[in-house]
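Give me the fold.
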Amino acid sequence: MLAARAPGSVRRAALVVALAAAFFAGTGLLAVVGGAGPLAAWRQLADGSLGSPAALGETLLRFAPMAMVAAGLAPGLRAGLFNVGSPGQMGVGALAAAMIAIHLPSPGGLTIVVALAAAAAGGALWSALAAELYVRWGANEIISTLALNFVAASLLGYLLSEPLQPVGANIAQSDPIDVHSHLPVIIGGTRANAGIVLTLAAAAALAVFNRTPAGYRLRMFGENRRLARQAAIDGRGIVRATMAVAGAAAGLAGANQVVTEHLNSLNLPA
């Protein structure tokens, strides 16, 4: 078993090494072009991202939503689906979370739970549109999810500049989000919040799922759809489920961008 897995492990390790080498080479080249030394640039990168508790907190704050989106996309990629609609799903999730946080403030933490659930549901429903287009009419999921990004952006732009915009506001934004609706900070003295815990939980759930019979059926569907049909695997169900998971994860990532203490409203760039 170990011997069978070794080639895949070697390839993954080689990919990580190659990406790390490309990162350091690229940043070093940019430093040279900018008139600085590569070593100084790498030291500044390390200090700015991990050099202090505050820097680590900022890194985790920005890492959590990106990692959440990646975890949600993984099952679909294993199934051979390419969902590029995460920005739109994040936007819809952020909108759902903001509406709950604004209109149902609660000091007991219930608002946070409901807001996160609403964000996951909003993102999942938005991705379900593309899933149904794929299942029912064979629409390419790349095109449909990409198009839905623009629809979501237009929807947010309208809502935040018309019905949801506070009186007197001069940018597209919502009412302020109550402080009781912010995700709790998990590292004192920083802005790192519970979003990183949600991300770790999602990654753990994904790792467990990959070792279940459902995970095996998902991989079979992605690697050989003809064989999956012969094995009576529900391909339509897999498409719907994986797209919903990706949308829900993106919705949670959007909520993490909104119900956090460094933002007080949902807004768009002016």
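Residues 100 and 230 are 45 Å apart (CA to CA).
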